[in-house]
User: What shape does this take?
Amino acid sequence: MDRAARIARALVVPAIFLAAWEGISRAAWVSPIILPAPSQVLVRWLAYARPYRPWDPATERWLAWALSGELLGDAATSLMRVGVGFFIGAGLALPAGLLMGAKPRLYELFNPMVQLFRPIPPIAFIPLAILWFGLGNPPAFFLISLGAFFPVLMNTIAGVRNVDQLYLRAARNLGAGDWTLFRRVMIPAAMPYILAGIRIGIGVAFIVVIVAEMIAVNAGLGYRILEAREYFWSDKVIAGMISIGFAGLGIDVLMSRLNAWLLRWHRGVEG
Amino acid sequence: MTAIRIAGVRKVFRQGAEEIVALDGIDLEIARGELVCLLGPSGCGKSTLLNAIAGFAPPTSGSVVADGRPVTAPGPDRAMVFQEYALFPWMTVERNVAFGLEMKGERREVVRERVEALLRKLHLHDFRDRFPKDLSGGMRQRVAIARVLAIDSPTLLMDEPFGALDALTRRNLQDELLRIWAELKRTIVFVTHGIEESIYLADRVVVMTYRPGTVKRIVPITLPRPRDPSSVEFNGLKRVIEGLVMEEQARHVEAEARRGTAG
Assistant: This one.
């Protein structure tokens, strides 16, 4: 009952919003190219998601057919780019951040350059990315990994530098050497920061992938939005945007589950 | 047999332009198996002295020798129990207790057996899979004690370990500590500002002076255990020690007031 009431309350504002939007479009106050009705967007979204051709049991399996729609292909392409770019970026940032956090000398050497590069939006690297990596996936991977790199780096450094001295003293007192201290005390103690950085990094990777797909590729959610714009298919532009929203929400929910499990020992983390 | 020999220890902290002499001319010998309390008001350097024994902060001059070896770094032969527990929050109770044994490179079966026995001894058995955040303060301190007992350290250093606990839990843990001490005969150096706690626990109470920290007087406590805090003898000792501590507390208050008017 309580749960039903909560869900109902959560749906009130979206329902009013959609109804108002539908009403405005139906009343033809604005051109459907400027603002297509939500019902029209939904129809377009279903068409976008549906396979192109009828199912032929002789030539393909049902599952392969069901997944052959344009939307799923685009989503898979975009997520693959986010995945590869993020793993490159975070994979470099994590060890770099651990080292910079643990070794003040390294921090002093590298921090000025990090501070200079960090505020440059990855998007500003687009011209260079194309010059260096050409067209297609490589420049996208480069831009996404750049976007994911700095949040993970900064948070990992902060996490390691903020490890409570008390834990280090206790571990030394119990006989831990440098390496054990690093591996079994500093890294887990820094984990809340590191995971927060990873979450931000994935968010940035998601922004960058859409922008990167607007240059020099021919698939992906970002590409599809731009393509739809060329034909004045506003309904498909919005359908693509909503798909991005759902994909981002899905990833964030998964990340927050993973967070809650990894940090189940941590105070102030909701289960 | 001397467990810890402290000779001519002096410790100076620099605070901006000011030099603070935290410890000066400390000479103290602690016998093996002895339970010694360091007692004094805050600012008397009792924790500083304990940290010097632990090897966390070496003295400016003078020497600390533990079991015949000069102290240069922290080590598992002088295991520390902290007031803030210092349990690793990302490890379960069981992993926390096992940590020191794993550092020693003990075989897995040995670790499991010893941890098992300690968890039983300290009534932690039902909590082995909990994380520290899910335990009460008293429970956490039990885990911290189990963790240092696991590594068989000949000397235990305890820095106001029961200071954050309520009175009943504190008495429980004091009794538990005495029971363990009687059984295992470890040397214990116990820092406290609780006068009654020091008389209840110690073989000798070392009363320290306020800044610079020196040994004001060493009061031997010969009352048989278990000690009764309501007994005449106990209260006689309490009156004597309270007098000594309050003299230093008065100097502490005076110094604070001076600093207040100067600043």
